[in-house]
Write a structure and sequence with these properties.
The protein is mostly helical and 241 residues long. The protein has helices at residues 5-20, 26-44, 47-60, 65-77, 81-94, 99-125, 128-132, 141-150, 154-159, 162-181, 196-223; strands at residues 184-186, 192-194. It has 2 domains: 23-125, Tetratricopeptide repeat domain (Serine Threonine Protein Phosphatase 5, Tetratricopeptide repeat); 141-223, no CATH class. It is built from 11 helices and 2 strands; from the N terminus they run ααααααααααββα. It has a two-stranded antiparallel ribbon. β1 (184-186) and β2 form a beta hairpin.
Amino acid sequence: MTWNRSGSRCLRSRAFRLETMDIRDPIEELAETAGRKARILFERGEKEAARTALLKVIEDHPSHPAGLEAKADLLRLEGKLAEAASLYAEVIEKHPGRVNTERKHAEIVLSMHEKELVASEAFRATNVREVMNPAGVRRTSGMSAFLSLLSPGFGQVYNGYLVKGLVMLAITAVLWVLMFTVGYVSAAEGRGTMTTVGWAILVLGLAYYVAAVMDAAVSAQKNTPPPAPARPKPPVDKPFE
């Protein structure tokens, strides 16, 4: 039996490929199989079964990079994206060259970035004034004035002026605190007396109450949408010309 030169060259090339071929780690294959199984089970809604499939790899090989990657896969399925991304990055740093891990890390970082963009766009599109004062909601002067009589600031919040109302509520609280700390002095017999500062605070507080009530009534009128214009009636009583 004779061999030609091309046949021997093919045999040598094949033997070289067999010698240099990478033999895959069985733990890696087991982890990949478990990961695929877990994703399928998770998509079917069988979350506990998916968790069990990954936990088997994690418990059997806790320090192996495949076990750490399986742990990151489990965190990803549970929605803990930040923790999963951190663990993926740790595996990549300690065991470079893991293309599949790098792909998963890139996907999860991109997903987190997209969620942040959506949240920021939603926050940017939200107008606080429109939330507090939606179009078409009618405010009455009587209700605004009544709420301001209870406490300056309530009427402004009712009218949709949130910041203004909170500031006025804070001023009201300060006036009450000053009244009972600086403006009122307790006597030994149990009766208290108003100080000069107390009378000044009282007058200022009354003027503040009146101004708050008037402001609430006026701002309610401003925020009340104007009535819809009357639609013109067609001249049905006139003959066509």
